[in-house]
Recover the amino acids of this structure.
């Protein structure tokens, strides 16, 4: 009787160890791919570079627009696509109902001299002139308004830039250009990540 108990106990132990070993082998096989799996910290990227305006949610429901009754005599008038723009002191305006409303020039708009206070930078071999959120490039004897390239980094946005949300992401918008706040070399900066159509 003692031998039967010893044999049964021995078989139970052997069977228990072999099942445990089999279970551990299967566990190792299932976790093996995870050891080789590389986890990369994802940087959120706008998959489409041009997004419909209806997909962009503005954080403030109304934007306060400050109009001007008269412009200084030094203001310059420039026509582009049958639209007159006035610029003075690095600001652009449109005449609307007897008042001058702040406006942004459209892509393709050209001026002969850059507004005061512009900054220059080079991105991918192209020299940009940046003034109050408006990007210019030199074309012949003019400076033409252009959209910046995706990935362009600037260190400040105009005061009129608005906080927006796109698919839950916090971004900034100015003149239909979408920016994401980033850190570069320990400094806050803003990277162009997309555009709003129209």
């Amino acid at each position: 009787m003692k031998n039967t108990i010893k044999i049964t106990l021995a078989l139970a132990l052997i069977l228990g160890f072999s099942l445990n070993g089999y279970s551990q082998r299967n566990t190792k096989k299932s976790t093996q791919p995870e050891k080789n799996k590389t986890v990369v910290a994802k940087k959120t990227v706008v998959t489409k570079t041009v997004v419909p305006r209806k997909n962009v949610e503005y954080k403030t429901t109304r934007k306060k627009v400050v109009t001007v009754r008269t412009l200084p005599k030094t203001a310059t008038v420039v026509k582009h696509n049958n639209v007159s723009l006035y610029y003075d002191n690095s600001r652009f305006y449109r005449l609307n109902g007897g008042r001058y409303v702040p406006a942004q020039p459209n892509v393709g708009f050209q001026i002969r001299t850059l507004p005061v206070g512009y900054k220059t930078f080079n991105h991918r071999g192209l020299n940009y002139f940046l003034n109050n959120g408006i990007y210019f490039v030199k074309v012949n004897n003019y400076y033409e308004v252009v959209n910046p390239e995706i990935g362009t980094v600037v260190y400040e946005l105009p005061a009129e830039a608005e906080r927006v949300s796109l698919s839950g992401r916090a971004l900034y918008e100015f003149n239909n250009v979408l920016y994401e706040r980033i850190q570069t070399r320990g400094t806050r900066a803003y990277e162009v990540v997309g555009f709003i159509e129209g």
Remarks:
- Residues 50-196 form one domain.
- Helices lie at 2-36.
